[in-house]
Amino acid sequence: MSKISISNPFPSPSLLEKVLITELIDVARVCYSRGWCAGTAGNFSLRGSRGLIWQSPSGLSKSQLSSDAFVAVDIESGHPVEPSVRLPSLEMPVHLGVYRAVAEARCVVHAHPPGLVARSRDCLDLVIRGAEMQKPLGSINHLQELRLPVIKNYTPDAMPQLATELVGSLIKDVPLIILAGHGVYAWGDSPLEALSRVEAVEFLCQSAAF
Ligand SMILES: [Zn+2]
């Protein structure tokens, strides 16, 4: 009798991706504990292999994420690649926009740090000079002028449009974009690097460095 082998047709994270998703969950808990992801706010993702991202789900507290709740989404089409009871975050299109535009972005962290939310309400780019904490955000030193892009906030139904429009607002070598009065999307080679960039911009906003 011939053996029938059944394999799961849906993707699962590689070992390295599992490690990075665990790190991403730790980063989400840090953001939650600091009050940067109140309620169910904030979203987190990782660029995987085969043109996929692993996206945090919609509607969950960032204190309660687990690795099996992350949803695999095709970067090109923007659709989840397997049926799931979980939906990806409503702000997933912004993550996709970043991954499509920035080849080196491996992880994206989105949070609502209150200092940054307050300082970005008027939808003007944040222009900083003379602050040591510019350096994690792309400045060679504190003497350089650092411009951080701020774009208007979008309603959830218009997020796919934002994914396209944000590309024109990105600034070379600046690893983040700010939605006015809403929050920041920061990216990096690892979850901890992306988190360090959220920390740096929030520190600049709180210390009135501009
Ligand atoms: Zn948000």
What does this structure look like?
This protein has one domain (15-206): L-fuculose-1-phosphate Aldolase, CATH 3.40.225.10. Helix content is 28%, strand content 17%. The chain has helices spanning 15-33, 92-101, 114-119, 159-165, 191-206; strands at residues 43-47, 52-55, 71-74, 107-111, 126-128, 146-148, 150-151, 176-179, 183-188. The strands form 2 sheets. Strands 3-2-1-4-9-8-7 form a 7-stranded mixed beta sheet, sandwiched between helices. Strand 7, helix 4 and strand 8 (176-179) form a beta-alpha-beta unit. The model has no long low-confidence stretch (mean pLDDT 91). The chain binds zinc ion.
Regarding CATH, which class? Alpha Beta
**What string, H for helix and E for strand, traces the elements in order?**
HEEEHEHEEEHEEH
* Total domain count: 1
The CATH homologous superfamily corresponds to Class II aldolase/adducin N-terminal domain
Number of helices: 5
Average residue-wise pLDDT: 91
CA-to-CA gap between the ends?
75 Å
Strand order of the largest sheet: 3-2-1-4-9-8-7
* CATH architecture level-2 label: 3-Layer(aba) Sandwich
Which outline best applies?
globular
Bound molecules: zinc ion
What is the rounded Rg? Answer: 18 Å
Strand fraction: 15-25%
CATH topology: L-fuculose-1-phosphate Aldolase
The residue fraction in helices comes out at 25-40%
Number of E strands: 9
* Uncertain segments: none
List keywords for this structure.
single chain; 210 residues; alpha+beta; L-fuculose-1-phosphate Aldolase; seven-stranded mixed sheet; two-stranded antiparallel ribbon; 5 helices; 17% strand; binds zinc ion
